[in-house]
Amino acid sequence: MAGRNFVRYSGSHMVGSSRRTLGIVFFTIFLDLMGFGIIIPIQPFFAETLGASPAVVTLLGASFSLMQFLFSPFWGKVSDKVGRRPVLLMSVCVTAVGYLIFGFAKSLEVLFFARMLAGLGSANIGTAQAIIADSTTPETRAKGMGLIGAAFGLGFIFGPAIGGFFGQFGLATPAFIAAGLCAVNFFSAYLYLPETHHPGDRPSETSHFALSWKAIRHAARHPNIPQLFLLYFFWTSAFSLMEQVLGMFIEVTWLRGEGRFPSAMHAREAAALTAWVLICVGVTATVVQGGLIGKLARRFGERRLLSTGTCLAGLCLFAIPFVGMLKIFALLMAVSVLLAVGTGITNPSLSSLLSQSAARNEQGTTLGIGQSLGGLGRVFGPAMAGSLFQIYHGLPFWVGAVLMFLCSAITLSIPRPRLNM
After folding, report:
1. For residues 73 and 78, what is the distance between their CA atoms, to the nearest angstrom?
2. Less CB within 10 Å around the terminal CB: N or C of the chain?
3. Which of 165, 196, 227 is the last residue of a domain?
């Protein structure tokens, strides 16, 4: 059922409709993130073939994240006015056009436009969260929101694998595959996704959020929250520094030495090697977050896990340039596994601590601020990663390591949170 009827029905029909809606949202986000992951292994080398320097390559990634940050509240507000379904369908179409333009791009200006357009379309996570909020009760909402995390993890596993494989047939090929996935996404949502919110209905608290200094100050009046907000920003910036230069680091270290532009063969090989590392990270992080984090949190507590995870990630980032000096790719894979363990225990622990520290009636807003600060980190990190890479190839990893160690130090100032009422 759709609209108001969707929430009026009870019993088995309501359960069946909710499960179908959640399944479609999961499938939509999974395909969305898989399309994003497909581009990651080939984006640096595609940009380099058009004359991009490392600084410009990473600014390309920052432009995508900036559009996501700016337009997530926009899509949420529009979905309050016209409904969730048309907004989700429209955003998927915009993303598909962005991928198509990326594949046909013959200049850096067009490539930037393509990534910004795809970022605009991919800023629909807030709308997906709103659909879940519309379709669940307060008791089942956390489990429903967990579907988005699962879709992120799986999309990030399969996306780079597909991108690395099809990148061997041409660097533009993965972009067209991503556009095709958007088409599948559109038709599945068009056929099966019901409307969960009609104009005039009360907006869900997770439908949109705009970051402001006033909102940060209001949320930060509770103990621990200022430190946790800093962690969201520094943690995401550090990881983004690594993520945006990893492919270029692999290419320069293992394939082409100090030459500025790669050959087509080297670019394809570098895309494949980058995909293997990202798959390794994605699989490990998914296993940790999906099967181990609950047991670890009960035994050690989120604060200790957060400190351990950021410290472990910092050590791994610090070690990567030295692994490059040894030129042992298997050792890079091993360090990547440890890095994924660090990220796998940090992400859920950070969200859990922030939720525990927020007032009960402000959890949605407080978590939204945390996600927005993380979005700023995904802009800030890539924006400086390329320039650091041009100074020295290992510098982005060492700066990221310093930020990780800073995060670990910040966690020492966080006592065990008292649940706010």
Report:
1. 9
2. C
3. 196
What is the domain-level CATH number for residue 360?
A: 1.20.1250.20
Q: Considering its fold, how many domains does the chain have in total?
A: 2
Q: How far apart are the first and last CA of the chain?
A: 35
Could you identify the residue written with the tokens 């598909």? 96
Contacts of 255 (CB under 8 A, 6+ apart): 262, 266, 269, 270, 273
* Measured distance CA(214)–CA(372) in Å, rounded: 14
Same domain for 270 and 153, yes or no, is: no
The pLDDT tens digits for 37-62 are: 888 889 998 998 899 999 999 999 89
Q: What is the spatial distance between Cα 52 and Cα 64, in angstroms, rounded to a whole number? A: 16
Q: Which domain does 272 fall in, by range?
A: 212-414
- Given this model, what pLDDT does residue 11 score? 39
In whole angstroms, what is the distance from residue 324 CA to residue 258 CA?
Answer: 13
CA angle 286, 289, 295 (to 5 degrees): 140
Q: What is the CA radius of gyration of the chain?
A: 21
Would the pLDDT of 10 be above 50?
no
